TrEMBL record:
GO MF, one annotated term: isomerase activity
Cited SUPFAM superfamilies: Xylose isomerase-like
Keyword Flavoprotein: no
Descriptive protein name: Sugar phosphate isomerase/epimerase
Extent of the signal sequence: none
UniProt xrefs under Pfam families: AP_endonuc_2
Amino acid sequence: MKFEFSLAQLTVLHTSPVEIAKIAANCGYDYVSLRQIYMGLSDEVKYDLKKDKKLMKEVKEVLNSTGLKVLDIELARIYDGMDVREYEGAMEVAAELNAKHILSSIWTDKKGYYIEKFNELCELAAKYNLTVDLEYVPIAGVKNLKETLEVLDNTNADNAGIMIDTHHVHRAKDDPKMLRSIPEKYFHFAHICDACKDIPSDEEEMTRILREERLYLGEGGIEIKDILNNMPIVPYSIELPNLKKVAEYGYEEHAKRCIETARDYCEKYVTGREYATI
């Protein structure tokens, strides 16, 4: 079985779109996942492909010469006071690069509000033939599978989806078997990584591990196969930030080890599940 992999921005965080694309191509990835919607963090360097035509041209040259594809653009966060139209520029970039998906997450506890905004986001993305894939994050507003499914149950958008991250499933203490109840149409891609088995009780420590100490597949204590084998096989975007590994190996070697360990693990343990037509 052939598995497809994408290199997520957080794995090689401080790289430009050209740099991450070159690393992904050199390491044998099928896709790259680009950050074009920024988080407002103090150490972020913004690479706006909509405004920087020279950079856009260089990215296209890498894609065309290597056969690498763009899987998704991140991160369309839903938060208090936001306007979904602020993400349209990134959607235009995604469409121009033939990307397939926009990654989203929810960072407010106001259920009626975030369901409304998620529907607006799906409507806008549909203009660009993009899916909107909702990722739950244990430190966010929508923090587990149950809450995510409530959002999907309250949208009629054909382009709505769910983005499962193996780290978050483990940290949320969700039962992987719950994934079997979800229609196949909602699965478009997934994030994979490993992490320590013990779940931090302190949110600050959970956040630190999430952002800087995830592990190669098979190195930690997450039952990754139980998660992946309860959902269809989709492209796996490797989101595996680890500051120590990057310091030791550099970005490209770290990215190479990410895909090598992921491919070995998937070939040994992942079969996916067969879905009836729903």
